[in-house]
Design a protein that fits this description.
mainly beta, eleven-stranded antiparallel sheet, 252 residues, 11 strands, Lipocalin, elongated, 10% helix
Amino acid sequence: MKLEIVTALLFLCHLFCSIAPACAQDRVETSQFGLFAHGGINLHSANFQTLPGVPSCCPRYENGFGAGFAVGGFYDLLSQSPFSVQFRLGYSTLGARLATDEFTTVLVNGNSATGAFEHSVQANIGLLSITPLAKYQLLAHAAVLAGPTIGWVASNTYGEKETLLQPTNVGTFENGSRVRNAYAGPTPGASRLYFGITAGAAYRLPLNQSNTLFALPEVFGTYGVTPLVRGMNWRASSLAAGVSIEYRVFAP
């Protein structure tokens, strides 16, 4: 009798183990959606001396760096192949600080000394964007994505100034201060449209046993194509890393 009971239990276990994966495979996924949050660095490339209508004697601004973040949501249009399309709608910051040093010779107590001025522009930019991404599932849990980012620049302000760096302990500009040509406000001639090329990768980690909720560590890069100011060579790109929380819906 005991042998028969053990045999029956083993048979039931084998039957359950063979049916359970089949049931899981029979589930039809209907949609994926979720939220994301990223942090990263903004990379500005430039080739200009002054903003439109803003007095400046800067030799040339060439690059800048800044911290940024992005938050938003996404929705996947699924297919039966490894390819799918994901739409991302979000808000991000693209601000950065551009700085250039200028050197000259000055007199300190009748003696020649090296003088250094720093020209700087602090750009503060907020972007609302939509990013349609082609998504390819490399592995069961890993995917790569690429597509255009199209955005509306919701805010674009600046602060520009010239600071006396050397000599460090003595000297001022003609205004009696170590700072001159300080201006701030809405960036003149700012472009309202932003276009960039975005690419990234994500890895899916399950958060529950039913495989409906996932965390996705991900990295993205965006190369800015359009100028931040009309008619000027000044563009903003970004590198970001963060996490998405994804929810998957299955047909009943």
